[in-house]
Structures are given as structure tokens and as C-alpha cells.
């Protein structure tokens, strides 16, 4: 998942991202390390937050735009 790359590009902390999405910082950390997989609702929230497609977020495409 490209979560860490997108988050760092925006210059925000795991805690700030978690607070803005109503998650906890540990979940963000686990998503970034691959220790945990995000559910559908969380994937949608992350894709919307970063304005990228879910496929881009998951590394299935190198094109961030929505189709």
C-alpha cells in the first residue's frame, strides 16, 4: 500500500491522519507496514482523503487519478 508515501508527501503525521479519519495511530502504522489490511470503508476513506483511486493506493496501478 502506498499510504506512507502519500502521507509523507503531504507532510502529515500518522496521528494527524488517524485523527482526521476517525482511526487510531496504531492502525495507520499497521497499514503502512503491512501488518494489517484496511477494510473496504477505510480504503475508501483513505482514497478519498488523498484524492487517489483505490487501485493506486493498493499499488495496482501507477496512475493516481480516478477512472
Overall 3D form: globular
SSE pattern:
HHHHH
Please state the structural category.
mainly alpha
- Rg value: 11 Å
Sheet with the most strands, sense and barrel status = none
Query: What distance lies between the first and last C-alpha atoms, to the nearest angstrom?
Result: 19 Å
Contiguous uncertain segments of 5+ residues:
none
Helix content: 55-70%
Question: What is the typical, i.e. mean, pLDDT?
Answer: 95
How many beta-strand segments? Answer: 0
Secondary structure: elements and pairs:
Layout: H1 3-10, H2 14-21, H3 25-33, H4 40-50, H5 54-57
Helix pairs in contact: 2-3
Structure description:
The chain is mainly α. Helices cover 60% and strands 0% of the residues. The two termini are 19 Å apart. 16% of the residues are buried. The model has no long low-confidence stretch (mean pLDDT 95).
List keywords for this structure.
0% strand; globular; mainly alpha; 67 residues; 60% helix; single chain
Summarize the structure.
The protein is mainly α and about 70 residues long. Helices cover about 60% and strands about 0% of the residues. The chain contains five helices and no strands.
